[in-house]
Amino acid sequence: MLLPSIFGNDVFDDMMSFPRFDDFGDIDRKLYGKHADRVMKTDVREHDDSFEVDIDLPGFTKDEIEIGLRSGYLSVSAAKGLDKDNKDPQGKLIRQERYAGAMQRSYYVGKELTENDIKAKFENGVLSLYVPKKEPQKAIPETKRIAIE
């Protein structure tokens, strides 16, 4: 039988279990499944003329992060690879728990913005983005002249 799956977890896993209040501490795991550690934690603050977006990217460097703007969507991606060289002079690696992989998240910012409008700063594992508010350009309807006979 095929059952829906979200982030690799069965949707009906906890359906029949009795709800307990101690489950609230594990809300990220319940919401995002076993991939909760790969989700970019984001804070968005609204100001009169802009948005301020702070994204936690601990363990990443500035060179491992890419930001792009396409069709009104601001995409942030980060990729980290660990050395796979087994000829390490410090000894053979027997357990590896540090994160290696990639993550990406997109935010709709509107088609009016260009890449020059958005400012980014990365400091102490936090990517800070300044996204200005721009009103959509309203097209002024062109009046078509009708000839009089």
Automatic annotation (TrEMBL):
Domain SHSP: from-to ranges: 33-149
Gene3D superfamilies, per database record: 2.60.40.790
Pfam family, one: HSP20
SUPFAM superfamilies the UniProt entry points to: HSP20-like chaperones (SSF49764)
Signal sequence, start to end: none
InterPro entries named among the record's database cross-references: A-crystallin/Hsp20_dom, HSP20-like_chaperone, Small_HSP
Family: Belongs to the small heat shock protein (HSP20) family.
The protein's name: Molecular chaperone IbpA, HSP20 family
Taxonomic classification: Bacteria, Bacillati, Bacillota, Clostridia, Eubacteriales
